[in-house]
């Protein structure tokens, strides 16, 4: 014997697969799992044996869906493994009992549809097996004959049925093929017609885009760099010779002028001076090229001067700040300037060796840099490109727009359809590829158009009311203007206001503040003064404390310190004091009176009636008094202020859809007791806010999970509270517990299978419920008893006396 | 085996021993025959089968639709694959056939020219095999469950008939009348069996849970009433000693006639000493038995532990007669098995059941059939190679390559 050993993990895996497949509850097997299962069975016949046992145990389960799946698996293996065939056929009678109901005492288990399917598929499978293997496996033949002769299974019918099915399938396939061919032909024809058009449109659109947005490469083909640089060189040299003679003082003046007149020049120089390799110009806003070219021209004249200035004067500190914004100008100019600078350097080298180091330092200093080691990277993210529609490009844009529309509405869908058809039916790969290329072209065009962000020219809209808008609209003024700003007094023919009167009119407080603001440079002493002395955290308080601790000399210091404060307070609160003098003092409450020292608060005294007789008086006087005191104190300490809000009537309704088609008419402020939080709803009662929708749907899910109608509106906490208050069990806890228990019990092991234990609502059940109800039984029994009693009474009612007398 | 042969050659071994060893080996290796079939003749269940004693060649079978058939079970064609052909049969068109189910069939032990059938139409018929005409008919008051002819009888020619009444009838073929009536049972008699050793000894079992041993020479009463407790327990006053707790519907003697085996509806098999009438108290375990009619048991002949073949629903169980050990279970029928018969010359077993099949169980000891198949396929390969595919391909695994990935 072979010393083959079953791998435990593989066995477990098999068991898992079997369980998974058989409890899926679906009429067909999952091919992937089945494949892996077969793969294990393939390893050796031992695994086949294991599989056989597993499947037979599954087949014995009292659920037709499990049986059906198990049977399907058996069929798969039966067709493949000899070992499995042997095993199954050795126990074929049992198998027949379990699949085709040969034993009438053990009918197939409940789900009717599954059992029917199982039976029919088993019959056809057995018939197929017989045809294929019947010669070799005697028992199979016997079984087949048994079914045929004893069970009167019409295998010929099954065979013919399967043949019919096959024929039908064949016909169906042919039909589908025909349809596919037709579609293919159609698409090809369509493609022949339309592909040219589409390609034309694409090229047109492309050229249109090129005209509107020429790519940066196109610019610099015509303007050769060498020319400009040569010009520059001469210019620079010239300027240099000129500027060498300029003195320091003059140059500074020059620089000032430069600053004022052209910022662009500065920028250019900065560009030239900063030897940044990162300065890549990927600017897509090529429209500004004209502007730049003018700059270049200017630059020829001035750059020399500037560089000299920079060399002599190092006051260009603010230049680098401008860099970032403006350095993103033009590649050409930059390179040119770089060149010019390098030239300069060269010349410098020729003149003097020391000059080089000086120059480097200068460069560093100009940019406020410490060394060259800085690596300044500038992000050149192209911003949102937008294109203004103008008269010049209007026609172009119009054609582009037309193309866009055409592509979106017509070409794109058709091309998509083509691709679909080609991939589905066709096997012409090159054709599909070409179509896909066309599609990508279209996509790129569309995206380009979308990126372009054309700002439509709104001139034609305003054309109509152009004449009306000639005048600027001015807000109307109505005659008398009481306030005349001081600087306009002259216009109105008034004398300028005297400053004294002005100061008089203004109140003291603002004045103080202004003075403080204007003259108010921050100073320590002032801030110290401003802080109140009481606050122990402030510096002043600490000073005071220290001074008090120290000797008498410090007393004068405190005086001087505190002196300036006094007039200030006096001046500030003089008016208030006056008012306070006049104002009557009204006691507001005991607690406010004793705000600062609540301990001193006293409870109102309880008057002791000493003079009364003890009979009338309160016996436990002392205790009562103290208690009363405590209560009184507490009452005094508390202050209740009733908030008197303004009543706003509710203007909205819940409007949640009701089952009868109407909306909930409740008018609650925040929450409807039936439908929860009140939210915005549309005409059909559906929530409009996406947040609400999400929360609602999640709520619904919760409800579905609990699936208990009562628990939907029952609030367990609230109910518990009510129960606690009433002392009556309303069933909240019971329901909860029950629900929990149910949930545990209900959690089915195999949720995919149909539940066969489920009690069906049949007429028999309903009748049973009615007839065998306890109360009904009782009633019937009582009636019968009554009848019996009556009978007995009629018969023997009069015998009582005799009975007694006989004794 | 070789050792046996060698010793036999040397004359050290009794020829019986060799024969016994080999037949035992073969009997223990019974399997459903792959190369022998019995031709199906009837649309009814097989209720009873019998093999003639003279040639051990003809298989007589009675069906539930009143028909009977005789098959030739000796293969004289030279082919390994063989289907037992019907020699003759009493088909449904035969005007003399039983009107209802045949319950029991029996060959005349001395000649294959006569056989007997009995059935639920209360008739016992004696047939002339050659003409298929009943030469004699006996009517009884109730359904005839079983009848039997003594295999060793020389001095008498009696047919014991157990029928629905409590009286066991003896039909004398010589006189052509039911000569005796044996009174002793209290209810219908399901099974009767002559002893293979003593021509006058008869055993019968019935619905009254009793097995009686008769000596037909004394008409007074039963010779012995078999007691399952061997007198250890007080017997019931009404029924007397009982053999089982349920009706007895299977009885057979061992081939040497020393023991009697009874099978009851209490799912028990009991072995009795036929001389003393004592229960041998051998436990065969629980063998389900829920039929209310005759079940034909069979015991092997010439094996060193004799083997009991007993129908157990749709299977046939094999037991060691003297130890009660279960040897094997023969699976092949698709419905309950009614009868089985051991064919001693070739150690085959024939069985019939409600699935209308008569199956042949042959010893599966050698690979002769496989060899034959191989040669066959080779032959076919040479001649026509399209046929060979089926046989060879069927036996191999056909794992398709799509499981590779």
Strand order of the largest sheet of chain B: 1-29-28-27
Main β-sheet of chain B: number of strands, strand sense, barrel status?
4 strands, antiparallel
**Relative helix content of chain A:** 55-70%
Mean pLDDT of chain A: 68
Unreliable spans of chain B are 384-392, 401-405
* End-to-end CA span of chain A: 97 Å
Instruction: Note the beta-strand portion of chain B.
Output: 35-45%
**Tertiary shape of chain A:** flat
CATH topology of the domain at 8-153 in chain A: Serine Threonine Protein Phosphatase 5, Tetratricopeptide repeat
Q: How many angstroms does the end-to-end distance of chain B come to? A: 50 Å
Q: What fraction strand of chain A?
A: under 5%
Q: Number of helical runs of chain A?
A: 35
Radius of gyration of chain A, whole Å? 51 Å
Radius of gyration of chain B: 23 Å
- SS elements, strand count of chain B: 29
The CATH architecture assignment of chain B turns out to be 7 Propeller
Major sheet of chain A: 2 strands, parallel
Pathway (chain B): Protein modification; protein ubiquitination
Organism (chain B): Mytilus coruscus (Sea mussel)
Pfam family, one (chain B): WD40
Main location (chain B): nucleus
Secondary structure layout plus pairing:
The complex is a heterodimer of chains A (807) and B (405).
Chain A: H1 8-22, H2 31-43, H3 45-59, H4 64-78, H5 82-90, H6 92-100, H7 112-133, H8 138-150, H9 155-212, H10 219-222, H11 225-244, H12 248-261, H13 263-273, H14 289-312, H15 319-326, H16 331-351, H17 353-366, E1 387-388, H18 394-424, H19 429-452, E2 454-455, H20 459-462, H21 499-505, H22 508-519, H23 524-530, H24 539-549, H25 553-562, H26 565-582, H27 590-593, H28 621-637, E3 671-672, E4 676-677, H29 690-706, H30 709-713, H31 716-726, H32 732-746, H33 763-771, H34 774-796, H35 799-806
Parallel strand pairs in A: 1-2
Antiparallel strand pairs in A: 3-4
Helix pairs in contact in A: 1-2, 1-3, 2-3, 3-4, 3-5, 4-7, 7-9, 9-18, 9-19, 11-14, 11-16, 12-14, 13-14, 13-15, 13-16, 16-17, 18-19
Chain B: H1 2-10, H2 15-28, E1 30-32, E2 36-38, E3 46-51, E4 58-63, E5 68-72, E6 82-84, E7 86-90, E8 102-107, E9 114-119, E10 123-128, E11 133-139, E12 144-149, E13 158-163, E14 168-172, E15 177-182, E16 189-194, E17 201-206, E18 211-215, E19 224-225, E20 248-253, E21 259-264, E22 269-273, E23 298-299, E24 307-312, E25 315-320, E26 326-331, E27 337-343, E28 348-353, E29 358-363, H3 368-383, H4 388-395
Parallel strand pairs in B: 2-6
Antiparallel strand pairs in B: 1-29, 3-4, 4-5, 5-7, 8-9, 9-10, 10-11, 12-13, 13-14, 14-15, 16-17, 17-18, 18-19, 20-21, 21-22, 23-24, 24-25, 25-26, 27-28, 28-29
